[in-house]
Amino acid sequence: MSKRGGHHDVVILGAGLAGLSVARHLRTGYRLLEAAARVGGLCTTVEDHGFRFDKTGHLLHLRDAGIRKWVLGLLGERLVRIDRRSRIFSHGVYTRYPYQANTFGLPPQVAYECLSGFLAAWERRERGPEPRDFEHFILKYFGPGIAEHFMVPYNTKLWGVPPREMSTAWTDRFVPKPTLDDVLKGAVGLHDRELGYNAEFLYPRSGIGELPEALHAALRRKAELGTPVEAVDLRRRTVRAGGTDLPFRWLVSTLPLSELCRRLHDAPAWVARTAARLRCTSLTYLDVALDRTPGNDFHWSYVPEPRLPFYRVGAYSNFSEELVPRGKGALYVELAARGPFRRCDGPAVARGLVELGLIRRAGDVRFVRPRVIPHAYVVYDRAWDKSRARLLAFLREHRILSVGRYGSWEYSAMEDALLAGRAAARTVEENDR
Ligand SMILES: Cc1cc2nc3c(=O)[nH]c(=O)nc-3n(C[C@H](O)[C@H](O)[C@H](O)COP(=O)(O)OP(=O)(O)OC[C@H]3O[C@@H](n4cnc5c(N)ncnc54)[C@H](O)[C@@H]3O)c2cc1C
Fold it and tell me: Is the peptide bond before 98 cis (omega within 30 degrees of 0)?
């Protein structure tokens, strides 16, 4: 039906999971343009002196039967099923995840404040209005103790904005709401079920980057790597990349929505104004190589206290031993401060890792690589829904589908990116009949 470079082609921007999935599910011709030198986007693994690092923890959950069959068919035995081991470190002790259902082990006064606040909130939760913002949601469903000791400080560190500036649009899936029974059992140390969407996960033995590499290897037409898209001309219906203009019939973009909008020629002025209202936080994190195995066996731990410079620490080497040389360890440390990592902050990070028991002394660290993810978390503020919906509808009128985590500007997971790519391919084909 189509020929390479011709007017009939679908052009796909970005070869992360969403872009690779579009390519896999299209039956028509396509060009797949990727700025980076490799596929995978957020879902890549880099190797450094025998240590393999993802872009922080990337744990795979596959619920859709078709996506599961596709991925298992490609990765097979390479994919391992793992039971989550996650913890919370606060007040000098570890407790189980989620905090709100596991107060056992906290200092008695803290546990009491959490529990009595929860019980009071539980009694009132059926009364009163729907939460107007995330802070209100926390107080309504968890009470003031859990809000003070975990929910507010942790989420402020994670999102970079206080919960009162955020809506609740994302909470149903990502914030577990325990029952009264869960909380009572968790207060006395009884555990009969794991809570939350990620109680178990799949993980490829040599890092999450195995997934996009396998998807790419199976494509009938490969991505054009090192080909950043510079502009999209709405009137001429062309994409400018690598000095040439490529005509498109459909454009499927997985670039961050704000970045796509910045590249549009001939768009009305409101588009740029609306795109400027989309908010997200960047993330600075550290890849840390250790000369020994980590001192804890957890996969990751949440760290709510503002006095510690990171909000979450994970141990790659506890996911898979293929990620590190024998007897060594590898961590990711997600920093609360935005902006570039300052070397002078290194000692505070090392002291924190010692306090968490991951290392005995700074000398256990072989090397540290600071990394930045410019688009890490979408901020669900009050303008979020309206702004993105308006932009996505405008693009759709021009036969441009903007999909994926940042393409549709949402807090979503790897499987969602694969599903979004599949849905975009179907939209293209259904509208071309
Ligand atoms: C810190 C963090 C932790 C996460 N943890 C998990 C987890 O545990 N489990 C989970 O399921 N999900 C997790 N995710 C989400 C997951 O990474 C994403 O949902 C998924 O990888 C998004 O894929 P995508 O294709 O939509 O976007 P991306 O991976 O961002 O792909 C977009 C692609 O576009 C390319 N591109 C950008 N600009 C241009 C340009 N101008 N021209 C051409 N190409 C361009 C990029 O290089 C990239 O390859 C996490 C995300 C983050 C940020």
Answer: yes
